[in-house]
Amino acid sequence: MNRNRKRTWGVVVGALLTGLSGLAVATFGVLSLASGHGGFSWGIAAMLIGYGLALGAAAWGLWRLSLFARGPIVAMALMHLAIATSYLTGPTWWAGALIACVPIATLVAVLWPSTTAELRARRAAAKSI
Questions:
Q1: Between helices 39-63 and 70-85, what is the axis angle to 10°?
Q2: Angstrom distance (rounded) from CA 64 to CA 83
Q3: Which of 24, 54, 61, 90 could serve as 66's disulfide partner, Cβ 3.0–4.6 Å?
Q4: CB half-sphere exposure, 59, CA atoms < 13 A
Q5: SS3 state of residue 69
Q6: What is the pTM of this model?
Q7: Other Cβ atoms within 10 Å of 55 Cβ, number
Q8: What is the mean predicted confidence (pLDDT) over 32-60?
Q9: Cα–Cα distance measured from residue 23 to residue 29, given in angstroms and rounded to the nearest whole number
C-alpha cells in the first residue's frame, strides 16, 4: 500500500478527535497533579494520564490504518457519550450538548462505510504481502 495515499475524511476526523480527547484527558491529569491534594490527586492523575495515553495510542493506530484501533475508539467514544449525557440536565444543559458532539462525530467518522472500506483494504494489503 502506498503510505503517501490520502486518507478518507473518516480516518482523519476520527484520529483527530480521538487524539484531541486524549490530549484533553491527559491535561486534566496534569492539572490534578498540580492541584496538590495529596495521594488522591496522584491516583486520579495517573489514571487520567494513562487513559489519555491510551486514547492517543488508539488515534495513532487509526491514523496508521489499523483495523484493530477502531474497536477501542468506538468503546471510548460510547463511554464519553454516556458521560456527556449526564450533563444534559440542569442550567448548563448546553455544555453537555456541546460536549456530546465530539463523541458523536467520532463515532460517525470511524463507523462511516468509506472508513471501514479503507481499513479493510489496508488489512487485505497487509495480508497479501
A1: 130
A2: 28
A3: 61
A4: 20
A5: helix
A6: 0.87
A7: 25
A8: 89
A9: 10
